[in-house]
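Incident log, structure service

09:12 report received: a user says their structure output differs between two submissions of the same chain.
09:20 pulled the input from the user's history:
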Amino acid sequence: MHDYSRFLNVYANVPAKLRDGIVAVIDDIPFSWNAAYIEIAGDTEIGHKIYQQLIKMEII
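09:34 re-ran on a clean worker, output below:
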């Protein structure tokens, strides 16, 4: 399992009303904060891609 603590720290501070907003697009599929959380917490391949994109975009 990967260490996704950087994502979790930021996610915890995103207001609940904003968590439905799109935060990343992977393979032309948009992911909200909530969907990203599910993918990252599930340690999926898509979750890893989302995590890497968020780092690249300097969101986390």
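09:41 both user submissions now match this output. Likely a transient worker issue. Closing.
09:42 reviewer note: The mean pLDDT is 95. The helical segments are 5-13, 33-41, 45-56.
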